[in-house]
User: Fold this.
Amino acid sequence: MPDNVDLPAVNAWTQFGRLLKVVVGRADPTSCHLPVEPACQSEINDPYLAEQIPWPGGQVKHRKSTKLAEAQLQNFCHILESETVQVKSVREAAECGRLVEKRRTEALRSNTKENDARVFQKGRTRTLRTKSMDWSKPVAGPEWSSPSQYCATCPRDTMITLGNTILEATMSKRSRYFEHLACREICLDLWRQDPLRIKFWSAPKPSMSDEMYNPGFWAKTDEERFQSMRSYEFCVNEKEPIFDAADITRVGKDIFVQKSMTTNDSGIMWLKSHFPELRVHALHFPYDLYPSHIDCTFVPLRPPGKDREDGLVLINPERPPLRAELELWSQNGWKMLNAPMPATLDRPAFSQSSYWLSMNLLSLSPSTLVIEEAELPLYNLLSENGFDVITVPMRGMYEFGGAIHCCTWDLQRDDACTDYFP
Ligand code: ABU
Assistant:
């Protein structure tokens, strides 16, 4: 596959154009547990452990955790950089899945083809890594302080490419205020390569003062939240524009932004006013009580084909989109595909993400996807829908805020500002 030499060094209009260049996060030894703060009440997932110890905060002491996450990130880079890849047979994929949950995957295995292992040419994706920083250092602004930062395993949360523009998100957590600096050198290098075609912007940094947050949010019971869920009021109020980059998904001329714990209406309006060449749409997921980041909820996989093949979006069955907002998609030849339940509902004790990291996949092209190796149900669904599915181990990342999509930030895809919703 020859490179498109005319493409600017920064170019990504979709989630699914052929991926040419990507940043992959880094699990530094100084990575920290997400501190408790107004935007986030971190808690231990394991009820037994939660009774024994408080939320630890500070640097992750168990070095095995950061080592495993970093080893998996390095392995992922190696696979992305490879020209060819060996796709596992369903049998091999099932073997990986068995390590996670024996009975479920054995049942699935008996229903699947077994001998489809093959090597295919996928083309190289160049990888860059985020810079190492000391995440254990306390940080402060004029009106706030945080005992530590977090980590840079998930550049997806802080950075987004919108066409030929690199954009640093505002963020909403104090501990993540400076996280974009792990990508700063990459941004400057790219911008300097082609400053007349590539834009490099930072969205207005919020004050992170107490007034930015709804004080009553965390005191609500789930029952109370359920009562008020259609008001879509979360922990940040509308005082300042707020968004995390991972609440945005790109589909050519249109981008879709989830209203969430980490993105408010003012943030969505800021995007509209600064990207007039794009159509910016808000998306709402009325059954998600704590929405944060669209990439475990609503994942465009491929556009409608010229021969009238449906476009596909992988959706989270526990977080269906607002029906009225789906009309635009169905009118333009897109179908929603329910993700299967994850291979396991278990999460590491200190993970602050949901078990839906199972669907946090990365598209290498409209026909090739990378998923976590244990996710056999997803592997089967995607294979049945005509995708080549590459599997990689990534559960070591679950403790550090994400998985395969979260740990990346795509810089260059072979795509364009196509109108998929004419
Ligand atoms: N950073 C992605 C997490 C999304 C979720 O927990 O569902």
In short: The chain has one domain: 18-414.
